[in-house]
TrEMBL record:
This is Photolyase/cryptochrome alpha/beta domain-containing protein. The keyword DNA-binding does not apply. Residues 5-157 form the Photolyase/cryptochrome alpha/beta domain. The keyword Transferase does not apply. Gene3D superfamilies: 1.25.40.80, DNA Cyclobutane Dipyrimidine Photolyase, subunit A, domain 3, HUPs. Signal peptide: none annotated. It holds the Pfam family FAD_binding_7.
Length: 673
């Protein structure tokens, strides 16, 4: 440890005082200069959206005040290059050391083809975000200049390069990953907040927060509303977390099933910007879990377990993106690359504007637009509709979420979209189609959520609220709904969407078979592009990571040697085989967030996947409500029992026969998955 040195503390997404390893280390070592460098050029296509920038701005103000109170002012810098800004700081204060906490986003300057239309639409072009690669290269350059650089894990329970299976391969299913993580030895280091900071000597120009450009004039009025509902900043994060522990955690398992109101912790934006230490969150909830277990409080224990699983999903998102760094643009299961997406910008627009004609989807999209926030279940419903009903490329939806969510977080966003798109071995099956109408009656049985966000449907009777297109004209008239005029007719018919998805899957399988056959015969020359290189070389990460010490930040190696070409085809196939095998051997494999993310499934229902998925899981008349019970083929009391166990006590309000019919249909559909 270097004592009495001057350090630069490079803040990024670790905007807190407490349990901040980089800050703690610099405070121990002597004088310090805390800096935050805003370099829009380096954000590239992942330049944050309005609400996310608003949050960042408020958090920085908060952190600035706190650091000032401790003795060292946070210097804000707007720069063209992070490296040059750091070098300027180093020379201005005579620093000999730079410390920072790791980020894990690893996005390569490569294939942006999927985004092309989206970017054209938005008038965006340019660079690619490269936090992890960028950090690594900055570190190398600083070290070359004789600067001591130390980086720390301030954002995760486990570094993504610490958790591997017995064959030292990266896990590709959440359950296996999380089981392993929970059984790993953990270093229990708590970094107490420094009680005093000694500021570095020397002068660095501090950019006023307004001049950083995080919020432009036209955004201010919309942003003002955000301040009424949210209080960014590390000490507010702390308050929110304390409130959760004291009052809401106990009933988390039950409450989180409601889509309206504050039914979950709402901690995600704090966690994204590192205003809350995930270690602290884990530790406190784990303690609650132990206490509730001792007290035989099963509700509390289940709630704590589920909450820890949610935290695990956040960890897993970093893990997958680190170990499979192509996941922001390609699915983990490569079959999806043969899927015939429908590049339909009119549909994309209707979805964004909440004008699809499906009330629950539209309510979700309007809430997102108005507030920057939607409940996890609504995220699943709108994204599922996007991919399965509209067959729009999931990457577009992922980017739109990135642009609009208050808690926009690339890794969680990617995992969320891949989960619902059939791209993960333990995610939703590609075949699965959840009718928004049925989802509506399940998760918004009284239609309150829809009425809140779609004022044009405010007077629709509950019976018709989730499928106004079926309502008699007299009902529509008395509710003031003129379909196609003040509320759209469905942009796609459910039966048609189902047929198209079935066709698209058939085409995908055919394309995949042709491509595999061509590869096996050696007739198809492998195009040596980044896409192939990344997937293959990064599949086995542990041995390939570049690092200097066990604590160091690692970067997956990207070998692009000519020798690699020989093995490319075989390795690629092997990797996909492995992913599928992981899934098929899945007696123990459950959907990664069956209790958290999904709208209907349970881990056990995964095992009940039938052979005739297409015809059974997407039944002809899933939308019609007039179906009697042609789907009973999959129902079994055993499955039903387990399903009820997991989805639990939630009773659908079923005041009339139609609702009951929908409920039955929903149950049967769920069993089929
Ligand atoms: C399509 C899609 C896109 C998503 N995009 C994002 C995103 O951009 N940013 C984001 O933070 N989350 C995203 N999620 C995950 C999840 O919806 C949110 O983390 C959650 O709704 C945040 O609310 P909360 O803090 O009240 O969660 P809680 O239920 O209280 O969970 C506690 C914490 O666990 C983590 N967590 C919970 N669920 C997940 C999950 N499925 N994946 C990763 N972490 C999870 C979050 O950090 C969350 O704050 C996405 C999910 C889907 C299906």
């Amino acid at each position: 440890m270097e004592k009495n040195c001057t350090s630069i503390v490079w803040f990024r997404r670790d905007l807190r005082i407490e349990d901040n390893p980089a800050l703690a280390a610099a405070a121990r070592d002597g004088k310090l200069l805390p800096v935050f460098i805003w370099c829009p050029k380096e954000e590239g296509q992942y330049y944050p959206g309005r609400v996310s920038r608003w949050w960042l701005k408020q958090s920085l103000i908060h952190l600035q005040h706190s650091l000032k109170s401790l003795g060292a002012e946070l210097v804000l810098i707007k720069a063209e290059s992070t490296l040059s800004a750091l070098l300027d700081c180093i020379s201005a204060v005579g620093a000999t050391k730079v410390v920072y906490n790791h980020l894990y986003g690893m996005f390569l300057p490569s294939l942006m083809s999927f985004f092309a239309n989206y970017y054209i639409l938005c008038g965006v072009s340019g660079n690619h975000p490269i936090s992890l690669v960028r950090d690594h290269s900055i570190k190398q350059k600083l070290v070359e200049l004789g600067i001591n650089v130390q980086s720390y894990n301030g954002e995760l329970l486990f570094e993504p390069w610490e958790v591997y299976d017995d064959n030292e391969r990266a896990f590709t299913t959440f359950k296996a990953y999380w089981d392993k993580s929970l059984n790993m030895e953990r270093e229990h280091v708590a970094h107490l907040p420094p009680w005093r900071l000694v500021p570095a000597e020397g002068k660095v120009e501090n950019t006023p927060i307004e001049a950083l450009g995080l919020e432009n004039e036209s955004e201010k009025s919309s942003n003002a509303l955000l301040g009424r509902g949210w209080s960014p900043g590390w000490s507010n994060a702390d308050k929110a977390f304390t409130e959760l522990i004291q009052h809401h955690l106990l009933n988390y398992s039950k409450d989180r099933l409601r889509v309206g109101g504050n039914s979950t912790s709402l901690l995600s934006p704090y966690l994204h910007f590192g205003e809350l230490s995930v270690r602290k969150v884990f530790q406190c909830v784990r303690m609650k879990q132990v206490v509730w277990k001792n007290e035989q409080n099963s509700v509390g224990e289940e709630s704590a377990t589920l909450f820890l699983k949610s935290v695990g999903l956040r960890e897993y998102s970093r893990y997958i993106c680190f170990n499979f760094p192509f996941t922001h643009e390609r699915s983990l299961l490569s079959s999806l690359k043969h899927f015939p997406w429908d590049v339909n910008q009119a549909h994309f627009k209707a979805w964004r504007q909440g004008r699809t004609g499906y009330p629950l989807v539209d309510a979700g999209m309007r809430e997102l637009w108005a507030t920057g926030w939607i409940h996890n279940r609504i995220r699943v419903i709108v994204s599922s509709f996007f991919v399965k009903f509209l067959r729009l490329p999931w990457q577009w939806g992922m980017k739109y979420f990135w642009d609009t969510l208050l808690d926009a977080d690339l890794e969680s966003d990617i995992i969320g979209w891949q989960y619902i798109s059939g791209s993960l071995p333990d995610g939703h099956e590609l075949e699965r189609m959840d009718s928004p109408q049925i989802q509506g009656f399940n998760f918004d049985p009284e239609g309150e959520y829809v009425r809140q966000w779609l004022p044009e449907l405010a007077r629709m009777p509950t019976e018709w609220i989730h499928h106004p297109w079926d309502a008699p004209l007299t009902v529509l008239k008395s509710a003031g709904v003129d379909l196609g005029i003040n509320y759209p007719k469905p942009i796609i018919d459910i039966d048609l969407a189902r047929d198209r998805l079935t066709e698209a899957i058939a085409i995908m399988r055919q394309n995949e078979a042709t491509s595999n056959a061509a590869n096996t015969n050696g007739t198809d020359e492998v195009v040596f592009d980044n896409a192939d290189t990344n997937e293959e070389n990064l599949a086995v990460v542990k041995k390939n990571t570049l690092c200097s010490s066990s604590r160091d930040q690692r970067v997956p190696s990207m070998q692009n040697s000519k020798n690699g070409i020989q093995n490319k085809k075989r390795l690629k196939l092997r990797e996909d085989d492995r992913l599928l095998k992981d899934c098929k051997n899945g007696d123990e494999v459950s959907k990664m967030d069956d209790d958290l993310c999904s709208t209907a499934e349970s881990s056990s229902t995964k095992k009940q996947m039938t052979n005739s998925r297409n015809s059974v899981c997407v039944p002809q008349n899933c939308s019609s409500m007039s179906s009697d019970a042609p789907y009973q083929v999959c129902g079994s009391s055993d499955v039903k029992y387990r399903w009820q166990e997991e989805i639990g006590t939630e009773e659908m309000s079923s005041k009339n026969g139609k609702m009951e019919q929908l409920k039955n249909l929903f149950l049967v559909l769920s069993f089929c998955k």
